[in-house]
């Protein structure tokens, strides 16, 4: 096991101990795995016109954004929808604070909460749907980064299955803003492929 692998394993375990939201911990695990696989941060991604570095900045910024909506802490220092593509430091050192903020914010939310404030329309929703939105964001961009790197999908099929109904509840209004492309026709494949097609991504995309 490399030093990076040990670091990722420790971070994964720490978050699983902290959270009462397994769907979020699993999505964060996927994002850590994908980031560790990237060698070329200038490589293209399934997100049109964005490099791996830009997708990474967007994904990290979104996690900070969820934490800010939940707790009132400062949001990201940059616009996650206009990422520079210039990484100011080691990716893992930029990623972990963002994931920690989100995990800690959600750890303070009861699973029974009927309304939480999140940066996704309609902005106020039940806790289970809100944390699902946060998890979906991390998982889909984990997949983007893995595809960019030519690595296997880090998103487990069980996680994709749990995220699809979340996507079906929140994604349609976001398509109008360009956050997601139109859904692709259903085809053969596993739960991950089905989720990505719904999100407008070609499961067979290659760099």
TrEMBL record:
Residues 24-146 form the Mycothiol-dependent maleylpyruvate isomerase metal-binding domain. This is Maleylpyruvate isomerase family mycothiol-dependent enzyme. InterPro entries: DinB/YfiT-like, Maleyloyr_isom, MDMPI_metal-binding. Keywords: Isomerase, Pyruvate. GO terms for molecular function: isomerase activity; metal ion binding. Coiled coil: none annotated. Pfam families: MDMPI_N.
